[in-house]
Design brief:
about 25% strand; Uridine Diphospho-n-acetylenolpyruvylglucosamine Reductase, domain 2; binds flavin-adenine dinucleotide; alpha+beta; single chain
């Protein structure tokens, strides 16, 4: 049994906002794979819940006229990985979310919950950083759009107020068109485990050998997911080579700040930062049409 208070089921975003506003202690719940763990552990014991589970206006993936891909935050990982728009334009995001938990968690857990829980280990977050994702947030006073880099404030802390609801994850055409990518999750087990380190590289390749654009992002390499502009600058505009891959791996170390935890030491994570960025660059280059 879960020790919850009232459970309110919202039938629209507007109603969910009103329920959160009029119940100041209430917590938003979508798939519940994070929230219900906290209820069971006692951290949220007795809490009132406002559910947006499977609200149609928050679920699914669409494309706007200008090519912006709009991901509904209540879209489950299973849905996302199979979605035709994701498969065609953002296959590396589908690949990343297929590494979350196991099938049961992926059937219920959502990309919005993954971002809003503020965890640096969230498997979708580093790829969304590399994609320069923007987050549309609604509340009783209106709507705002926040770059994902500004949304993460610290470990488990995001820029959401009591009646704020993430209503869309937006990916602009210029941030995905022509890009290939690859996400590597290093964990102790192959499934049902949180990332010890997550690393994604996205790149655009010209004439099969020049890295026209390169993006590198990590989870668990700092208190929040991060981009590594110094490494991106080393590779951008360069002809792909093994020498460049080595330089890229070294440059990746310059802007990370991993910690020691029971999962791994800081030193081991630093080794992963260098090695995984090299492996992810090689695979992303190939996925983007590069040839050695
Ligand atoms: C067994 C198990 C294994 C797991 N393995 C992984 C893993 O490998 N990788 C990984 O990244 N995660 C993992 N998780 C964590 C979890 O499944 C994910 O973080 C998931 O994405 C959470 O989504 P949810 O819809 O269940 O979130 P919920 O639990 O419903 O909500 C999570 C948080 O986000 C807020 N929230 C949800 N939706 C919105 C919204 N639209 N607007 C504003 N706030 C919102 C909630 O208030 C809450 O604070 C695992 C969890 C379990 C139980």
């Amino acid at each position: 049994m879960f020790d919850t208070g009232n459970i309110f089921e919202a039938h629209s975003v507007k109603e969910a906002i009103e329920l959160l506003r009029s119940n100041p202690g209430a917590k938003l719940i979508c798939g519940g794979t994070d929230v219900l763990i906290q209820v069971r552990e006692g951290r949220l014991a007795g809490v009132d819940l406002v559910s947006i589970h499977q609200l149609p206006e928050l679920t699914g993936v669409t494309m706007e006229a200008d090519g912006t891909i709009v991901i509904g935050p209540a879209t489950s990982f299973t849905h996302l990985a199979k979605d035709p728009l994701i498969k065609k334009h953002l296959p590396f995001l589908g690949q990343a979310v297929e590494l979350v938990g196991g099938p049961q968690v992926r059937n219920v857990g959502t990309i919005g919950g993954n971002v809003c829980n503020g965890a640096t280990s969230a498997d979708s977050a580093s790829t969304l950083f590399a994609l320069n994702a923007k987050l549309r947030i609604a509340n009783s006073r209106g709507e705002r759009v926040v770059p994902i880099q500004e949304f993460y404030l610290g470990p488990g802390k995001v820029a959401l107020g009591q009646d704020d609801i993430l209503t869309a994850i937006l990916i602009s055409r210029e941030d995905y068109e022509g890009f290939g990518g690859y996400y590597i999750k290093y964990a102790m087990r192959k499934a049902m485990d949180i990332a010890t380190l997550g690393c994604v590289v996205l790149c655009k390749v010209k004439d099969k050998k020049i890295l026209e654009d390169v993006r590198l992002a990590f989870g668990v390499a700092a208190p929040t997911p991060i981009r590594v502009p110094a490494a991106e600058a080393v590779a951008k505009g360069q002809v792909f080579s093994e020498e460049l891959v080595e330089q890229f791996g070294k440059a990746a170390l310059t802007e990370v700040n991993p910690r020691t935890s029971w999962r791994a030491s800081r030193e081991f994570r630093l080794q992963l930062v260098e090695e995984l960025s090299k492996r992810a660059l090689r695979q992303a280059f190939s996925n983007a049409g590069g040839e050695c």
